[in-house]
């Protein structure tokens, strides 16, 4: 086992192994590594870890140091220098009339070399361009021609799926993709639908190819001679994802019927003659889908707060029940309808009557037995109004004593 760290450069998402030596480096830290082109600025994507010896390409380069503040300043200066070199190179290309497209400019960490990436349809004679760039920057100039896939990987963007390019996000190397994969997956062979932004076949065609190949092995081919629960027939087409086949039955060839793969018994796979093929007398049984489990009904506990009582026993209206909007007068009192007051007195009287008539309940004597019935009724109404009236400090309002509890002032 060999202890290494994984670093990534700006040119793509591919990671490289380097020897950390005695340094303990964590993911996300910037480091200075020794490469074949000299010192380079890179970012650690995976800290110290061990890999198999055969996974390391010898000789294994080492990490020089963890990036310091001066190293970050140098890297920032190189980025600004790359922007300047890109603009100057664009002008030089137009002056020389070269048929090439500049993609990216990279400057080495020590500033001794500037690398220009470009795309072109054919070979380009850029010798004069290199001389002009070398006279301007006074450093080593290198022009490198790349393909359209490398261009998409460097520039990045969004695919037709709405997600960033796979090559720019996580693909280390480009995987080979062929038109046969699109045929196996029953995709449209229209180039605009199966091609990426780079103009080549989409890399994601490779992701599900193994699953499709495994499913195709279990499915019969088109024009195969099969036996179904309804009789023999020929396969017209197949659906690999659902694992179903459409069969034109003998005697009902106009409308093909759909069957699951397990409902079909293949007598001849592919095109051919039926001569010498014996049709079994026992046909396959129909496929019964497994019954879905019934969802468990969770009882919902909902408390009923239709009537909420206040601390003194009065029922207050809830949010669901309609109630009258109350207006406050200038004097601070609530205006009540005479009907509401009468209804309140009637409800209060019915409550007292029910309490007195209920069996096993003792009737309490009144506090003022000498009060006449008329005065008692009047006192009950005053008590009801007193509960609904707001209390004032001092117990007086407009020079009149405050009444409560049925006692007369």
What strand line-up does the widest sheet have?
2-1-4-3-5
User: Overall pLDDT, averaged?
Assistant: 76
H/E element sequence: EEEEEHEEHEHHHHHEEEEEEEHHEE
Q: What is the β-strand count?
A: 17
Show unreliable segments: 303-312, 315-343, 349-382, 394-409
- Supply the CATH class of the domain at 74-146: Alpha Beta
Q: In the CATH hierarchy, what is the architecture of the domain at 74-146 at level 2?
A: 2-Layer Sandwich
Approximately how much helix is present in the residues? Answer: 25-40%
How much of the polypeptide forms β-strand, as a percent range? 15-25%
Oligomer: single chain
CATH superfamily of the domain at 74-146: K homology (KH) domain
The end-to-end span amounts to 101 Å
Largest sheet: 5 strands, antiparallel
Radius of gyration: 44 Å
**Overall 3D shape:** elongated
Task: Describe the protein's architecture and organization.
This protein has 409 residues and is an alpha+beta fold. Among the domains are: 66 residues, no CATH class; 73 residues, GMP Synthetase, Chain A, domain 3 (2-Layer Sandwich); 56 residues, no CATH class; 50 residues, SH3 type barrels. It is 26% helix and 24% strand. It contains nine helices and 17 strands. It has a five-stranded antiparallel sheet, with no helix packed on it. A five-stranded antiparallel sheet has the order 12-11-10-9-13, with no helix packed on it. Strand 16 and strand 17 form a beta hairpin. Helix 1 packs across helix 2 and helix 8 packs across helix 9. The radius of gyration is 44 Å and the shape is elongated. The N and C termini lie far apart (101 Å). The C terminus is likely disordered.
